[in-house]
Amino acid sequence: MSSIEEIISYDVDYYGGGMNATGYQYRAIIGLRRANGSLIGAAYFHRDPSTLPPTDEQKPGGYIWCHYPWDSFAQVLDLLRNESPVYLRYVGANWQVACITTSIEPVGESE
Predict the structure, then answer these.
(1) Is 26 strand, coil or helix?
(2) Which of 24, 57, 56, 29 is nearest to 42 (CA)?
(3) 3-state DSSP call for residue 23?
(4) Of 100, 73, 62, which is closest to residue 84 (Cα–Cα)?
(5) What is the DSSP pairing of strand 26-33 with strand 64-69?
(6) Are 66 and 55 a contacting pair, CB within 8 Å?
(7) Which residue from 3, 64, 68, 81 has the least number of CB within 10 angstroms?
(8) Omega of the bond prior to 60 within 30 degrees of 0, cis?
(9) How many CB atoms sit inside 10 A of residue 72's CB?
(10) Coil, strand or helix at 65
């Protein structure tokens, strides 16, 4: 199964917690939303790369789990802030991978 949907808005949960947070695997979660505010899925940023699952996942209801190591947070946030349109894509079957992607853009695009 494969799906793609435009991300219209997003929200960021950036977790603290000090030493108590060692049991919580996510450093941040970015909720990826439709025009009506409902969730398409989310980008999960793991504190420790060892907690990354072997694949991404799309639930039967359509929600997409997109996993990244913590050091990818700035790049993903930059895409959401500075590109348009941006999409959340999931490719199932043997791949089981999600991505945040842009549309095709011309070479040398200026500001």
Answers:
(1) strand
(2) 29
(3) helix
(4) 100
(5) unpaired
(6) no
(7) 81
(8) no
(9) 13
(10) strand
pLDDT of residue 80: 97
Q: What is the pLDDT of residue 3?
A: 87
Q: Which residues neighbour 88 within 8 Å (Cβ) at sequence distance 6 or greater?
A: 4, 5, 7, 32, 40, 41, 64, 66, 98, 99, 100, 101
Return the pLDDT at 1: 67
H/E run at residue 94: none
Tokens describing residue 3: 């799906």
Read off the tokens for 72: 């990818």
The Cα–Cα gap between 71 and 74 comes to 7
Q: What is the DSSP letter of 55?
A: S
Q: Does the predicted TM-score (pTM) go above 0.85?
A: yes
Helices (H), the chain: 73-82
Work out whether the CA dihedral 15, 18, 20, 21 comes out positive or negative.
positive
Which H or E element spans position 98?
A: strand 97-102
Q: Give percent above pLDDT 70 in the chain.
A: 92
